[in-house]
Amino acid sequence: MQILKDHSRVPPGGWKYTDPVFNHTFTAPNPHLLIQRIVDYYHANKKKPPVDVALMVDTQICEGLDDMARHCRYTPKPDMKTRILHASQALLKFLDRGGEKVTAEQLAKRQMICEQCPHWNGTVVLGYGACRACGCTGLKLWAIDERCPAEKWPKL
Fold this sequence. Notes:
Layout: E1 2-4, E2 15-19, E3 24-28, H1 31-44, H2 53-63, H3 68-71, E4 72-74, H4 80-96, H5 104-116, E5 120-121, E6 130-131
Antiparallel strand pairs: 1-4, 2-3, 5-6
């Protein structure tokens, strides 16, 4: 799947998405409002919206760009086996470093970045949240040597 590198910048052509189910085109001034309009439209038509609406929007916008490499990056969403393997490796690395965590200020900054991302779902994984694009959980925010795979925040 393709995701936009920066959701704070309006992509060429604007925030626009044509839904394949309803063949309806949605526009909005920002990605959060665009996603909300799509979800509301599904509910108004008594259909369950797709769980990954934000990913669908990003992918469609990226695929329509002439210079996709400049604005987007390919992010394969790992399967469950791969996510468990990565989480296990991260836990071992965390324990090897003595459980060293980020400061409260660094954690707050990482949380703010994730919460502003349209791919973030803060209500899953026991309330720690998770990213729909890469599968990372909010637990990763605490580890000093972890980074966001979408390059939104670095390891420290």
